[in-house]
């Protein structure tokens, strides 16, 4: 009976790796946002209103903040009034031209003035649009630097993190160099209390080895629909074909 038990234990040890051997398949990693964006303004000015707060989920092109825009709105209204006047003037002088009371040169000048006014209106509207700050990506607000009444110039008003997809930065011992390639699959196991397992794809394999640590870097792109995983977690990563 004892002999049978010994052979059974040996068989199990042959077909099931020890915990240490199993752990060697996994490498340490850190789950990070795929982008951290400092949102600034294309035009300087005083902030009138900030629409979002830290922790808010946002969509691409969503309004984040508004700058004071009284002058720009007045310029748009003025350009619209000038354009309407120019169009009426062209219509009135169309009849005069048909009756040969004004020259073709004068008629062309008035029509050209209307074209210039249309461009001036477009320019005024673009300047007004710059007073609205929108999000360049889907993401989450992680920091808010400025509030209503404060001046924004070259700095940023807030920081946005894109966490779908996520990046997993993995540190791999040099002896594995050449065995990991772009396009390979990766199993990612976040630390507790999140835990679980999810799959990503290798998108970057560093071609420069860090001599001091004897390691190289690998980046895994990890889909994160619904923002199920938070960024900043440590994890373990296993690569496979």
Question: Can you describe this structure in just a few lines?
Answer:
With about 240 residues, the protein is α+β, with helices and mostly antiparallel strands. Helices cover about 30% and strands about 35% of the residues. The chain is built from four helices and twelve strands; from the N terminus they run H-H-E-E-E-E-H-H-E-E-E-E-E-E-E-E.
Question: Could you describe the 3D structure shown?
Answer:
- The structure is a single chain.
- With 241 residues, this protein is of the alpha+beta class.
- It has 3 domains: 18-35 and 163-240, Elongation Factor Tu (Ef-tu), domain 3, CATH 2.40.30; 39-68 and 135-159, RNA polymerase II/Efflux pump adaptor protein, barrel-sandwich hybrid domain (OB fold (Dihydrolipoamide Acetyltransferase, E2P), Beta Barrel); 70-129, Helix Hairpins (Orthogonal Bundle).
- It is built from 4 helices and 12 strands.
- It has helices at 2-15, 19-23, 70-98, 104-129; strands at 27-40, 45-50, 57-58, 63-67, 132-134, 139-144, 151-152, 156-173, 185-190, 198-205, 215-222, 234-240.
- A 6-stranded antiparallel barrel has the order 1-8-11-10-9-12.
- Strand 9 and strand 10 (198-205) form a beta hairpin.
- Helix 3 (70-98) runs antiparallel to helix 4.
- The longest helix has 29 residues, at 70-98.
- The radius of gyration is 32 Å and the shape is elongated.
- The model is unreliable at 1-22 (pLDDT under 50).
